Amino acid sequence: MLARMNVFTKMTLLILFFLIPVIVLYTYSNRESVAVIEQEIQSSTTNRLSTFAASVESNIYQLSLYGISIGQDSSIQEFQLPDNKAPYERVRLSGAILEKMNLYNAASKWHSTITLYFPRQQEVISTDYYTSIPYDEGELSAPFPQTWIYADNSFIWHTTEPTTAMENPGRARLITKISFPANQLSSLLDQDKENNRGDPFLFHDEFGIISNSSANTALMANLGEELRQAPLQEQEGFRTKLDNTEYYVSYIKSNSLNWYYVDYVPMQQILSPVTSSRNLFYLSIAVLLVMSFAVIFTLYRSVQLPLLQLIKGTKRLSDGDFSVRLDNSKHNEFSQLFLRFNIMAQRIQELIENVYEEKLRRRDATLKQLQSQINPHFLYNCLFYIKNMARLKNEEAVVAMSLNLGEYYRYITRSENDLATVREELNMVTNYLKIQSLRLDRMSFTIDMPDDILERTVPRLSLQPIIENAIIHGLEPKGEQGQISIRGKTEDGLHIIIMEDSGVGMTDEQLEQIQQDLAKHLHEDMGCGTWNVNQRLSYQFGGESGLIYSRSPLGGVRVDMIWREHSNK
User: Fold this and answer.
1) Tens of pLDDT, residues 352-361
2) Could you report the per-residue pLDDT of 138-158, keeping only the tens digit for each?
3) CA-closest candidate to residue 490, choices 540, 456, 537
4) Which residues face 123 on adjacent strands?
5) 567 pLDDT band (50/70/90 cuts)?
6) Given this model, what pLDDT does residue 485 score?
7) Which residue has the higher pLDDT, 365 or 263?
8) Each residue's pLDDT tens digit, 6-32
9) What pLDDT score was predicted for residue 447?
10) Closest Cα to residue 452, out of 499, 485, 496, 418?
11) What positions does the domain HAMP occupy (predicted)?
């Protein structure tokens, strides 16, 4: 298939074959690079969030441990003694307990509120100096959960002394309540956002979102809806698309707070350099393709079109159209080639026209020669007949033959045209048959010719030699009553005149020999009458025209004269 393509198609495919592997390889490389960067983004986001969650969990764990260990302080234990009733002593112990709790807050990274409840003394000591906290026995009667709880924008943790009193706070000697505000976590989120490129926040399915101070609240609200719809695990990540921007969202569950630490990062923000590089590459390829097509178009206009024009010209020339000329107004190498082609075509046309004219002259000369040969042949037969009739003293036959002979020469000399209508030929044959019927009393003839054939043209003296042979070589040797039939028809554009006799006939070998002799050159052993008729038909109307010999149902020979008039040129 490639071998049948022209040069222009091969060059176009070659350019495409060069570009396609480059595009495929770069696309594959770009995808691999994007995949690696995406994995790094996901890993970095997860690691950063894990670090933030570990820091928060560490602080919460320290607060939880302090809530458990504070009950072991000597001042608190002494404050719980029932015999310690002196007011001064209780004020001193309360001040000592507050001082230690303040020292812990000062040493801690987080600002928290520590409140101690003494069920036996019905007293409360708290680091919240601005709030008077009464002892509410109803508030402290319900079992305490084992985790931090969220209420009033604060996270709260309860411990009891002893720890077995968590289920029944009424049996506790000491209840410790540690709380810190939610904005404490917001401050940590602000610090993490400053140090990293993420935008972390905390999410709870019931309480909502705790975000940093500069967060995109609308976007976080949408992410919150995505998190509510997703089946959350302990730690996972997923990709989502919001506002035509794709994000990678990573989350970790806090076992202490029962909230989720969430961070997200826009993928396109980090992939923008790779995307810009990819777009620049594709733009370069597009420019290269445009330039390639411009070069291909130039080659097509300057090379391919002239080549196609030259190929079409040579094909028309090979098909025999020697009038073809190539037109190229551009001044390049092809214009010189077209000029030489036009000169060659003109010279070939002149030579062909000269040869054709010479062939026509030879053809006309041959037709004249063939026609001139038949006229003496008929004249000889007529003269011999007149001589014989004169010997027999048959004046009527002599007169009839003489009149027929005069009509014949008048017919052949009245026009220089080599063609005659079938009607004129039949008139001549009718005269001839009448003469022969006078000579032979045992001969009859019939003529049945359709009107559409009567006006058709044939070479002059085409029918008479065939009828003459039928009488001389068919009817006369038989010595019995003879019959000659002439009829015509048209089939598939071919005109056919059928001439039959009831004479002695011929064998199949003789008929085949006569048919072969018609196609050969004339020699001494051949009769020239029917040979001339066949040659004139072939020259005048083409190769399919001529005479065909066969057996006749009448017993003699059948001769079909066939010609196609439209081939006459």
Assistant:
1) 777 766 665 6
2) 777 788 888 888 888 888 888
3) 456
4) 118
5) very low
6) 94
7) 263
8) 666 777 777 777 778 877 887 777 777
9) 93
10) 496
11) 301-353
Give the DSSP letter of residue 4. Answer: G
Task: Please name which of 62, 142, 106, 129 lies closest in space to residue 115, comparing C-alpha atoms.
Answer: 129
Q: Which two tokens stand for residue 81?
A: 């003694």
**Of the options 3.40.50.720, 3.40.1280.10, 3.10.180.10, 3.30.565.10, the CATH number for the domain spanning 417-567:** 3.30.565.10
Read off the amino acid at residue 283: L
- Residue 434, H or E segment: helix 422-439
Cis peptide before 306 (omega within 30 of 0): no
> Which amino acid is residue 334, in one-letter code?
F
Which pLDDT tens digit goes with each residue over 446-459? 999 999 999 999 88
Q: Kindly compute the dihedral angle of the four CA atoms of residues 520, 522, 528, 529, in this order, to the nearest 10 degrees.
A: 30
Nearest to 176 by CA among 87, 105, 115, 122: 115
Are 288 and 316 spatial neighbours (Cβ–Cβ below 8 Å)?
no
Question: Is 0.85 topped by the overall pTM?
Answer: no
Strand 494-501 vs strand 557-563: parallel, antiparallel, or unpaired?
A: antiparallel
Q: Which residue has the tokens 């091969």?
A: 10
Residue owning tokens 């020699």: 523
Q: Which two tokens stand for residue 453?
A: 């054939």
Q: How far is CA 92 from CA 78, 84, 105, 434, in A?
A: 11, 12, 20, 175
- For residue 70, the Cα-to-chain-centroid distance in whole angstroms is 82
Where helices occur in 151-266 by DSSP H, the ranges are 182-195, 217-229
Name the one residue in this structure whose structure tokens are 């080549």.
307
